[in-house]
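Why run this: before we spend reagent on co-expression, it is cheaper to look at a predicted model of the complex and decide which construct boundaries make sense. The entries below are exactly what would go into the expression plan.
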Amino acid sequence: MAGRGVYAKGIAKREEILQAALAVIASHGYRAASVREIADAAGLSPAGLLHYFGSKEELFVAILEARDKQDFADADSEPDDIVAFLEVMRHNASVPGLVQLYSQLQAEAGDPEHPAHAYFRKRTAEVHDAFRGHLIAAQERGDIRADLDPDWIMRSVHALADGLQTAWMLDPTVDMVADIEQFLGLLRP
Amino acid sequence: MAGRGVYAKGIAKREEILQAALAVIASHGYRAASVREIADAAGLSPAGLLHYFGSKEELFVAILEARDKQDFADADSEPDDIVAFLEVMRHNASVPGLVQLYSQLQAEAGDPEHPAHAYFRKRTAEVHDAFRGHLIAAQERGDIRADLDPDWIMRSVHALADGLQTAWMLDPTVDMVADIEQFLGLLRP
DNA sequence: GTCTATAAGTCGATAGAC
DNA sequence: GTCTATCGACTTATAGAC
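The model came back. Tokens follow.
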């Protein structure tokens, strides 16, 4: 298989732990996902797990990084950026455990001392950098009002998506995709 | 003073604990605010504190309810609802500890089993009920586009405010009030 | 009614044997 | 690389003093 180097086993085991953690979060939720429970699911002792991920938070950050990577790969195969973004939101509605992990970790990461603080700041910058060009191009095409500040649009769509996710977790009848689409409609000339 | 009934002392003590908890959260943040630390600040044992509030989460819910009550009272003295809402957002930027508590507890409360789940669902319904009438009146006056669904507007403003608060905690240079005002501008005919 | 003392059980994390 | 053993800190529950 891939990676017959010195760390091949370690990398495979990391992947195995990530999958086990995802399964635990999906079924029992983020709140009940203790290091012990994830270690049990991965067939490992808690200390064994922490050999691969330095701390509980680092494990969770690794999970979110893996999701980001997947989402970006999916978006690349999509012709339209807006459609790709809406597709990610639509997909999120099918993995409540992951959304819970994202929202909760982000709320905790407001504290600059939190282990995930750097990750979320970097993620925000990267997502905005990835979309800024496409957004400005859409404004030049006339698909989006040119009098609106592109950075304001990105901050707003991002904040709206995050806020709708917490609203949806509190009340699953909330239609996140429909509400986002309504907002995007307001941006058109 | 007010309340010389049988429970006067208990009520006063509850208030004292609430203030101590607020002080701890403001200085050390929500994350480090353990029951023991708050109890110490209030000059009480952990068990003594839990006599007044059944659990840590109930104490935090009581703090948020006290804030809501204050915010609503402030809003009532304001002639314009939009101005009152923006004033609350502006004030929030001066109490990061409270915003952290709100965001984090709300993220945790996505789980229906969480002790604060009912509080946040009730709060959302109450806030929306309080504003729906004013919003529809504004649409009839022509201050806000009449072709927009009032419930969509409330969900969006609410979600945007929540999302901007987490963005602001990650990056304090974010101007929550300015971004909200920009959005409100889009709603005008 | 108010509160202290105490204890049970779980958590994330570490040290060191193998 | 993985384990056992163990740490200190945490929430929560209970018995009973005042």
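Chain B touches chain A through 40 residues (CB under 8 Å). Residues 55 and 99 of chain B are 21 Å apart (CA to CA). Bring this page to Monday's planning discussion.
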